[in-house]
Each structure stands twice: as structure tokens, then as C-alpha cells.
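Dear support,

I submitted the protein below through the web form. The confirmation email said the job was done, but the results page showed an empty box. After a refresh the structure appeared. I'm attaching both so you can tell me whether what I see now is the final result or a partial one.
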Amino acid sequence: MTNTMQKARRACIWLALAMAGAALVACSSPMEASVAGADRAAVQKCLAEGSTWDKDNVRITEGYCAKGTPAQCVAVGGQWQRVCMMGTLACVKPYADAGKVCSDGSQCAGRRCLMAPGASHHTVPQSGHCIANDNPCYFGINLQNGQPVPTAVAD
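What the results page shows now:
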């Protein structure tokens, strides 16, 4: 076999491999394309549970299972959005008493009474307002019996 024929044969083999690869990509399902690199069993389990596989999180690049779906969230009056520093997806639902004047979390549906912005820590007792929604990373200084108390943030 001449050198030219060997080169032609190699070129045909590479062309055939490239076409086979393109055919495989074209035949892959949308889920396969959307979870490249993710554990397919984990994705399928997540979707079977009625949850959402989030592959677009910039901090959790391998993807993760977010509880619920946007449609389920809207159906209960919530907003499907990214929360906390990790930017995970969650259904954030408003509280009916959002903004109500309070001095203790026991007076609020969300169990958190936030100190008014700009209020002095030394003014006691003081009133604040009930937290607006169930965002797990809602930031603010809590009031307990009209007194500011140390506040932990979920992030």
C-alpha cells in the first residue's frame, strides 16, 4: 500500500468516527444534554420525585436537586428564585403579616421580628416589623421582647 493510500485510508477512518460521534450527539435526549457530567441516576431520581434539577448554578457546577418546581411554587403563591450565597433554587412564599409592627418573633407568622433599619441597639424596648417571607437567608437583627438579639444567618 502506498503512502498516499494509507493517508487516504486514515482520513476515511477519522471521517467515519467523526460522523458516528455527531450521530450520537444528535440522538441524545434533552435530559442527557442538560446533565452532561452529572450522575444520571441522581437526575432521574430528582425528576421522579417531582423536583427540579438545577444545572445552571454557578457555585454548584455539577448540579443538584432543588425541592419542588416553579409551577408548584406559583400554585402556592410563592416565587421560584435563587436564595442565599450559594444561589440555590427555592420557593419563597410571603407571610400575610409582612411588615406588621412587632417587638417579638412570637407576634409574627414567620417567627421573626426584625429591628427597624437604622435603629440604635441601645434604645430599649423597641419595635420592628415582621419578616416579609420565608427566604431562609433573610438578613436582619431579630428582636426578642423589644431587645435586639444576636442573629445567625443561614449562609
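Response: this is the final, complete result; the empty box was a page-load delay. The chain has a mean pLDDT of 81.
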